[in-house]
Design goal:
This protein has twelve helices and 14 strands. By secondary structure, the protein is of the alpha+beta class.
């Protein structure tokens, strides 16, 4: 399909112990930590030999930590590697051993952590470096969420994971949104100041989810109440970032019923496995409605705008979910003049739905209504949900995408483009490798044994790329995808009989945690 390709870098986007009896000079700065090379035993890991700190002139220097990971007395409950059972019928790469896959995850994690976890401006804080920006901004909440999830899942291999996680947590807490102290301001500059008080929903959801993971890993062996903090953030997300009318995920916390974008959404903000974890943690059935309504919108968009490829646009406008609204999809054009395919008869369920792709330059680029650098994450998020829940809505969504991507690439991952229109055609001049597109297609392939050969090829293709060839966005998505592809992704479960109760709904838990 593509005869010549080039690698490019895409520009975008502890138990800290209170040592009362020891001198203050022994209190850790909570610095970016480096894992050493793996010892001869593939499953073993060494503790960090040094950390990165700020010198008086604000340069970066290396020194041995006064307090190492040994200060965190609790071993993780779910040390990497884990290998939980995914949904029956799903697959892993089968042409290499489990040990080889685990070692690939370990190796890339060492590189990823060393390169992207940076010390903050305040003692005891760290952030995920927003590499690739042309300006002076250093961190976005999206990246902070990525890092917090990754570090929690890699605990056990990384003996200092809890200390690192707590440093990332404190940076998040130091940069609250204007609307809620439990949400994170979406971007910070080189002085660690938030550029505004708005939020990004995806970052908040990952951070909240990571705190549930942290609680599952370290429990109460911390001076940070992970579960209580998770609950408070989940409540803030429900109040500020979920549309109260449609129960569809909103782009951020700034919309109100009077806003022109009140009924708009960004496709990549739908993280159904996170929402299921929120449901289990709180017992609040609202999250069931959010999951189902977002899936309904996605299926409507597939049927109406992308019947062959099954793709979803970056941004979605005018979502409606409800009885009797009468938005029947018929062939022609929508309000923006975009083609509506009207693929087959409209079901009773579809008749109560409406959504359409955003117009060009809606928010970020002329491709806001196409499958671009936001929507590329959707197959990863939906497939992850299917792996852990087996939801048939997820399976149906993925089947169309998997069939199309195998066909359009002729079974060769090297032919994956960095963007498509909703008809499945390459966006112009996008014939380069972008891991943020490649990795999610690989994760999607795990949903069915029909994709086994394709999945094996995708694994080999992804592994060959070096961290230095890509930026924070691609490498962070690769890191999370490797964890999933290797069979090491797991979801938090609250202790039996100990479901968190929502602080503002007044509702009792609807069901017992599994």
């Amino acid at each position: 399909m593509h005869s010549v390709k080039q690698s490019v870098r895409r520009s975008v986007k502890q138990f800290v112990v209170l040592l009362i009896a020891l001198p203050l000079s022994f209190i850790s700065r909570c610095l970016a930590q480096q894992t050493d090379t793996l010892p001869n035993s593939p499953a073993a890991a060494r503790g960090p030999e040094g950390k990165i700190a700020r010198s008086p002139d604000n340069s970066t220097v290396s020194h041995t930590s006064a307090i190492t990971a040994a200060a965190y007395l609790s071993s993780p409950y779910r040390a990497f590697p884990q290998h939980p059972n995914y949904t029956a019928g799903t697959i892993l790469p089968n042409h290499i051993s489990q040990e080889e896959m685990d070692d690939s995850v370990r190796s890339f994690y060492r590189q990823w952590k060393k390169h992207y976890i940076k010390p903050g401006c305040r003692q005891g804080e760290s952030y995920v470096w927003f590499e690739g920006t042309r300006g002076t901004n250093i961190c976005v909440s999206e990246g902070q969420g990525y890092g917090m999830v990754i570090v929690a899942l890699m605990a056990g291999f990384d003996s200092s994971a809890q200390e690192t996680y707590d440093c990332l947590y404190r940076f998040y807490k130091s940069h609250p949104a204007m609307s809620s102290s439990h949400l994170m301001a979406w971007m910070q500059n080189k002085d660690c100041l938030s550029i505004d008080g708005g939020t990004a929903t995806d970052g908040d959801m990952d951070i909240a989810y990571s705190m549930l993971l942290a609680d599952a890993q370290w429990g109460h062996h911390s001076n940070i109440p992970y579960r209580e903090e998770a609950l408070a953030m989940i409540d803030a997300i429900r109040q500020r970032e979920i549309n109260p009318v449609t129960h569809v995920v909103m782009e951020d916390d700034n919309e109100s019923p009077r806003s022109k974008d009140f009924y708009d959404t960004r496709s990549s903000d739908f993280m159904p496995d996170h929402l299921r974890a929120f449901r289990e943690a709180t017992g609040d059935p609202t999250w069931d409605t959010v999951i189902n309504n977002n899936y309904r919108i996605f299926h409507y968009l597939q049927n109406t705008y992308s019947p062959e490829a099954g793709l979803i646009p970056d941004f979605i406008k005018h979502t409606r979910v409800g009885v009797g609204r009468g938005f029947n999809a018929v062939p022609g054009s929508d309000s923006l003049g975009q083609q509506v395919h009207g693929d087959g008869p409209v079901s009773d369920d579809d008749a109560n739905l409406y959504a359409e792709p955003a117009q060009a330059n809606y928010l970020e680029s002329k491709y806001d209504g196409q499958y671009n650098f936001n929507a590329c994450r959707v197959p990863w998020r939906v497939s992850t949900d299917y792996l852990i829940s087996g939801d048939p809505q997820a399976a149906a969504f993925l089947t169309r995408i998997n069939s199309w991507i195998r066909g359009t690439t002729k079974g060769n991952p090297d032919n994956i483009s960095a963007g498509y229109n909703l008809s499945g055609e390459d966006l112009p001049h996008r014939y380069f490798e972008a891991l943020c597109f490649i990795c999610p297609f690989a994760v999607a392939a795990m949903s069915s044994s029909d994709n086994q050969d394709w999945l094996n090829k995708c694994w080999d293709y992804i592994i060959r790329f070096k961290l230095k060839d890509f930026d924070y966005y691609d490498n962070s998505i690769k890191m999370q995808s490797l964890i999933i592809l290797s069979g090491n992704y797991w979801t938090p479960r609250p202790p039996a009989g100990d479901i968190l109760t929502s602080t503002n709904t007044g509702q009792a838990p609807a069901q017992q945690a599994k």
